[in-house]
Write a structure and sequence with these properties.
The chain is α/β, with parallel strands linked by helices and 213 residues long. Helix content is 34%, strand content 17%. It has a 7-stranded mixed β-sheet, with helices on both faces. α3 packs across α4. It is globular and about 45 Å long.
């Protein structure tokens, strides 16, 4: 598989590179992904974005497609990691992109080639409204050895506070909760918070997590 096109923000000599994959429905230059890439760069970190084949194809012909099968998503991640491979690489992404990154991080541990860290933004613990289906998306998170930060909105329909707080994780996994955030971290007006406030809180948490590695 060829290397996908990379979008790179931040200094070449940054202490860490954070590779972020997009979610199932939005491209690597969506407002969310753009804001996080620019926010990491502003904090002195290097952010690398890429697209899975189905999303890259949509960019060419405008046709919406379902995500590629898991083996293709995993192989795309592995290609990007092989290209970026050095001792300061953190991988992760939004929703599906972060979930696949977590699967790859777990596999790389077994191969004695672990990445430095993992960051999942809005992890899809289960399909919306179906918390009983969480088990299949959770198993590898119970044995991860890679330092992991999951940033999650408290009312995320893919895994809100009440549901996720009851789950068991590896000791290497920490969850950062964003008050009243949905799957994209947007709070309700009545909360008194703003989307930008939650995004900046998430970015500060990512920055602190990476620099503590």
């Amino acid at each position: 598989m060829g290397l996908p096109h990379l979008l790179i923000d931040g200094p070449d000599d940054a202490p860490f590179t954070i590779a972020l994959a997009h979610g199932a429905g939005a491209a690597m230059d969506s407002p969310f992904m753009q804001a996080f890439a620019e926010g990491l760069a502003a904090r002195g970190l290097r952010c690398v974005r890429f697209e899975f084949p189905y999303m890259a194809a949509r960019r060419v012909d405008g046709k919406k497609r379902p995500p590629d099968r898991a083996p293709v998503l995993i192989e795309t991640w592995r290609t990007v990691i092989a290209h970026l491979n050095h001792g300061s690489l953190v991988i992760g992404g939004k929703s599906m992109g972060g979930r696949i990154a977590s699967m790859v991080a777990h596999a790389l541990e077994d191969e004695d080639q672990p990445v430095r860290g993992l960051i999942c933004l809005g992890y899809p613990f289960y399909p919306p409204g179906k918390p009983e289906k969480a088990a299949g998306r959770l198993t590898h998170l119970t044995t991860l050895k890679t330092p992991t930060s999951i940033v999650q909105g408290t009312r995320d329909t893919f895994g809100g506070y009440e549901q996720v707080a009851a789950l068991a994780f590896s000791p290497m996994v920490r969850v950062k909760w964003l008050e009243d955030g949905d799957h994209g971290f947007k709070p309700r007006k009545a909360s008194g918070r703003s989307e930008l406030q939650n995004w900046n809180e998430a970015l500060d948490a990512m920055d602190a997590f990476v620099r503590a590695l």
